[in-house]
């Protein structure tokens, strides 16, 4: 599932392509909103909130969530559209296509943030507050760290890649209880820093080494040697999300 940095970058690309432009076509291919037509309206805001994305057009707000397979693509208006398209937005120059979006809804602009009222502080947003995020993180001290990090009500934007990398950097197993974290605020700040440096990168990096094959500590590296101690990385794919850890560096 795309994480907060990916959604932030997607919003940036849509903003560059659509901001200030008048829609010449608005084709919503979701039955509930199939009659909505924003043709003639001006796109005046595009923003991300955690893993959610909003395109605000005239009186409406197009709210989407990529879920597992969704994407927004910017093409020319001559580009053919296949069956996976859930929405097509044209201007005189470009076409924005929302493909396989997990969530797509057209909301009243003044009430669109009701859809994300459950979210914790946005790691890449103006509302970021490390103290609030830390308090949310430790609200249930017996909860596994990975479960808490993935809960968007704690802080918005962390997905499975960052979750595994943060557990490694904290020195704890993903299954360790939140109470094991000595400095939860530091972990929250580290999460924010990690997403912030990746917000405009095409190739995500958590190690500080952007060379191919060196970008992550543990995620996706099952059986490979830990970059710190050389111990083979373990993994567990029995749950909803795959977990990766170093049994020596993480306790």
TrEMBL record:
Recorded catalytic activity of this chain's protein: 2'-deoxyribonucleotide-(2'-deoxyribose 5'-phosphate)-2'-deoxyribonucleotide-DNA = a 3'-end 2'-deoxyribonucleotide-(2,3-dehydro-2,3-deoxyribose 5'-phosphate)-DNA + a 5'-end 5'-phospho-2'-deoxyribonucleoside-DNA + H(+)
Gene Ontology molecular-function annotations: class I DNA-(apurinic or apyrimidinic site) endonuclease activity
Membrane in keyword set: no
Keywords of this entry: DNA damage, DNA repair, DNA-binding, Endonuclease, Glycosidase, Hydrolase, Lyase, Metal-binding, Multifunctional enzyme, Nuclease, Zinc, Zinc-finger
EC number annotated for this UniProt entry: 4.2.99.18
Domain FPG-type: 217-251
Domain Formamidopyrimidine-DNA glycosylase catalytic: 2-98
Keyword DNA repair: yes
Pfam families xrefs: Fapy_DNA_glyco, H2TH
SUPFAM superfamilies: Glucocorticoid receptor-like (DNA-binding domain), N-terminal domain of MutM-like DNA repair proteins, S13-like H2TH domain
InterPro entries, A to Z: DNA_glyclase_Znf_dom_DNA_BS, Endonuc_Nei2, FPG_cat, FPG_N, H2TH_FPG, Nei2_N, Ribosomal_uS13-like_H2TH, Znf_DNA_glyclase/AP_lyase
PROSITE patterns: FPG_CAT, ZF_FPG_1, ZF_FPG_2
NCBIfam families linked: endonuc_Nei2
UniProt record similarity statement: Belongs to the FPG family.
Name used for this protein in its record: DNA-(apurinic or apyrimidinic site) lyase
């Amino acid at each position: 599932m795309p994480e907060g940095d990916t959604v932030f970058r997607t919003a940036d690309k849509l903003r560059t392509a659509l901001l200030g432009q008048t829609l010449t076509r608005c084709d919503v291919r979701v039955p509930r909103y199939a009659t909505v037509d924003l043709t003639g309206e001006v796109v005046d805001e595009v923003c991300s909130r955690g893993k959610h994305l909003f395109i605000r057009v005239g009186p409406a707000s197009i709210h989407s969530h990529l879920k597992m397979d969704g994407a927004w693509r910017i093409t020319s208006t001559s580009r053919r559209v296949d069956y996976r398209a859930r929405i097509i937005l044209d201007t005189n120059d470009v076409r924005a296509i929302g493909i396989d979006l997990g969530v797509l809804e057209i909301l009243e602009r003044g009430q669109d943030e009701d859809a994300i009222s459950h979210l914790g502080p946005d790691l890449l947003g103006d509302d970021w507050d490390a103290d609030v995020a830390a308090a949310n993180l430790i609200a249930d001290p017996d909860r596994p760290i990975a479960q808490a990090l993935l809960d968007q009500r704690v802080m918005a934007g962390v997905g499975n890649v960052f979750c595994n990398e943060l557990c490694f950097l904290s020195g704890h197993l993903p299954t360790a209880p939140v109470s094991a974290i000595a400095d939860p605020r530091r972990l929250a700040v580290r999460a924010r820093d990690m997403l912030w440096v990746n917000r405009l990168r095409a190739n995500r990096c958590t190690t500080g080494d952007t060379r191919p094959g060196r970008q992550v500590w543990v995620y996706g590296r099952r059986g490979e040697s830990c970059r710190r101690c050389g111990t083979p990385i373990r993994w567990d794919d029995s749950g909803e999300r795959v977990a990766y850890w170093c049994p020596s560096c993480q306790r």
